[in-house]
């Protein structure tokens, strides 16, 4: 009668597991979009004071769009240009790219001038404005100098449209005239001492973070680069763009997953075959673990909609912990021999498994409290996976492992476990722990701290070097710092940005800064434009015009008051009467507005510098030629609404703050686990069960100090898992010892088996390409090892007569 409910539960669980497998397959492969998230920014926590700052960080990070920025270089100018043309043609023929720009399309340079003519009298450089308002300004002398100037290389207005050169001077300060890349032979070329470099931009027909787009685009580039190298061996290619960083992160995660997943699976399989001497326990353990991993993937994708790279690698490592539950059940089966009863076996291991699950979930739940997307996903993955794996032991394994085991646990493992258990238990073991704690003190004193963001994100050095070279040669890309300017409306933002850029202009003159890019350079505030118009009006009229709100200051009235003065000066300087009449008739024009700026095609690439929406109004100012954070921060002193945003530094500070919080959380978790043990075992015995994981944490931290490993947030997070996993071992031994009294050492053999499987998976994280996961792996390797060796302290020493 008891078999029917067991069979029904197993059938329902198997049906649910099958449904979860189908759902998992659909979530991973059936939607046409991979849930694997390779955008590194999405793994990072919010660091700024308010949403507008975070918006600015995101806009700046995505400003390059889904495109490859390529620079073809060669010592020979012709080779660089030919290679760039051929590379662009090869990429342009692949449908994975929506557009490829190598050779420039036919372009009328007047398009860079004509849109600004209506606003010419409102647009002045600071130098021209100062010269006009200076005492003794001579319009005739200024016009004569302009007539005698050689033709400039930069884009400028016609002489008759801009006789004083004011508009040309302003245009010279625009971003396209300050670029190191110049149009040459229908290409954008930069000349340096080491040769010529030609820009090629390939825009993707999809997202940089889409797996399919990524692979197709990189394959197309590799093929085109190979062809280019075969024909032009002296040509070299530099590359940057989100796609390369995403691909590098994906490749690292895939490597880590293969190393951790495959190596740990093979190691665990060999170990289980050795211990149980049968294939069936191995298959049962892997079925239970696989169901747990499937449940974890489904839960994580349903909750977050995606899988971060660290979650993928961490999920491979979770195999070693999720398999613990089935191992304890299978060890109980092996120890029972022919007296095995599946239902009774479940009742035997249930208290230990539930208490162990609770302590593990406590550690992961604390991990989930950290407002850090990557850690929260890892916690969700672990909580779901371990819960499902544990449930499979109660509901599925009684049917899969209904018959007695063919053989007991490997005698060599049992003998080894018994020998160490006698050494590592009793009063002499407690004395040894005290001595070890004293020896750990110097290690603790050697500890330092490191909260660098590169612990989480560490792109390949070769890619970083190429990005830096492209930034240096072509001016593409920027540093991680920028100024954020905020205000109640657009006018206030522009005025505040101008206060900042006035200061930056002095820095540039002093050589502290090579330049900057900001909206106010392209769109002066209305206040600044009125000042410009007032200065120009003094030349045209002799007096400044009235305010725009005053009827006497309307363009028609101003123009009527200003007839003759500039015309006379132009005629005296040598201009024709028709040119003088036409120029005078255009005064005073109108102010350039934000709407005008947004509608001007040439400014479209710079729209990301302006923000206006639900989170407020603001602008981004990018420094050039300076990355000293302390110096850049001084530019904001005394300027309301202006702040320096440094995302990496902000995250590093956040890591340090969380690390301090984590110390408190770890202490609180120890106290909670201690209370749980006191409830289960009583106050007198609870300290014994808590001692192994607590000592494991102490010795692990000391070992990190001796290894000169600075303590990071990820070490502390791993220590929380050491507490949960280590408490499992003490619980397994404490609960399992009475049931395996007839086979001394068998209970501890099961604990050692669980520990070794965890070391085979979590320990392999120490080989990860991601520094944060390496820290996780090293800490867990040390913590699990120490805790497993100290677990015998939780029970009295076995009597020698039982050997």
Structural commentary:
The protein has 803 residues and is an alpha+beta fold. Strand 5 (187-192) and strand 6 (195-204) form a beta hairpin. It is 61% helix and 9% strand. Helix 5 (139-147) packs across helix 23 and helix 29 packs parallel to helix 31. The chain starts with a helix and ends in a 13-residue tail after the last helix. It has 31 helices and 13 strands. This is Exporter. It is found in: Cell membrane.
Mind sketching the topology for me?
Elements: H1 3-30, E1 36-37, H2 51-61, E2 67-74, H3 77-92, E3 97-101, H4 126-133, H5 139-147, H6 166-172, H7 175-178, E4 182-184, E5 187-192, E6 195-204, H8 211-231, E7 236-240, H9 242-276, H10 279-304, E8 307-308, H11 309-317, H12 319-336, H13 342-369, H14 373-395, H15 397-400, H16 411-423, H17 427-445, H18 461-474, E9 481-487, H19 490-510, E10 515-517, H20 519-522, H21 526-540, H22 555-561, H23 565-573, H24 577-585, H25 594-599, E11 610-613, E12 616-624, H26 629-634, E13 642-646, H27 647-681, H28 683-706, H29 713-736, H30 746-762, H31 771-790
Parallel strand pairs: 1-8
Antiparallel strand pairs: 2-6, 2-7, 3-6, 4-5, 5-6, 9-12, 9-13, 10-12, 11-12
Helix pairs in contact: 1-10, 3-8, 5-23, 8-9, 9-11, 9-12, 9-30, 10-12, 10-14, 11-14, 12-13, 12-14, 12-30, 13-14, 13-27, 13-29, 16-30, 17-28, 23-24, 27-28, 27-29, 28-29, 28-31, 29-30, 29-31, 30-31
Distance between the termini: 40 Å
Question: What count of structural domains?
Answer: 3
**Portion in beta strands:** 5-15%
What ranges have pLDDT less than 50 throughout 5 or more consecutive residues?
544-553
Query: Which class best fits the helix and strand makeup?
Result: alpha+beta
Q: Name the helicity range.
A: 55-70%
- Per DSSP, the total helix count is 31
> Tell me, what's the shape?
elongated
Task: Please outline the major beta sheet.
Answer: 6 strands, antiparallel
| β-strand number | 13
Task: Output mean pLDDT.
Answer: 83
From the alpha carbons, calculate the radius of gyration and give it in angstroms: 35 Å
InterPro entries: MMPL_dom, Mycobact_MmpL
Transmembrane segments: 258-276, 283-305, 311-331, 352-375, 381-402, 423-445, 664-682, 689-707, 713-733, 745-767, 773-795
Membrane topology: Multi-pass membrane protein
Subcellular location: Cell membrane
